[in-house]
Amino acid sequence: MKGKGSTKSENLARLKDIISLAKREPSMSRREIAKELKVSRNTVDKALGKASIFNEETELFRDQRGDILDSKVALILKAIDTKKVSEAKLRDLAVSAGILFDKSRLESGLSTSNVSSWCAIVAESHRRKPEEKGLENANPARTGETVDVEPQ
């Protein structure tokens, strides 16, 4: 909170300004407070960290974080309508679908990685006979077969 050449009284005044603005405008983020008062966000964090009322709010958020985030997710999902989906770019739709799929699996206690799929593929490949695997037509360098090459 100490700036170059700042006196104790200037630092105290800055601390009071930060706390006062945070109380007056509780919806302002710490970043917005820092911009408004022309101080660093770190200065705002330190100032509000010293104000016990904001420590209680932080603890309350930590205790209710799941409910708060769930309500924000519901708000966002309600805002997505057919028109917005039809106007969205294919890439955005694909990314969104993938994220929602992963979150759904995570919530269901299922794997969100492809490890189980790969394990099944590898296990199946070890159970099959070489001729069933199609190795007779495979690249010899990858199957361990040797090929005589005559110099040209």
Task: Provide tags for this entry.
152 residues; 0% strand
Offer a concise description of the structure.
With 152 residues, the protein is an all-alpha fold. It has a domain at 8-107.
Description:
By secondary structure, the chain is mostly helical. The protein has a domain at 8-107. The chain is built from 9 helices and no strands. The protein has helices at 8-24, 30-37, 41-50, 52-79, 82-87, 90-107, 115-127, 130-133, 140-143. α1 (8-24) packs across α2 (30-37), α1 crosses α3 and α2 (30-37) packs across α3. The radius of gyration is 30 Å and the shape is elongated. Mean pLDDT is 77; it is low at 137-141.
**Helical residue percent?**
over 70%
| Strand fraction | under 5%
What is the terminal-to-terminal distance? 76 Å
**Largest beta-sheet details:** none
From the alpha-carbon coordinates, what is the Rg to the nearest angstrom?
A: 30 Å
Order of helices and strands: HHHHHHHHH
The helix/strand class is: mainly alpha
Q: Report the uncertain regions.
A: 137-141
Average pLDDT score: 77
Categorize the overall geometry.
elongated
Number of helices: 9
The strand count comes to 0
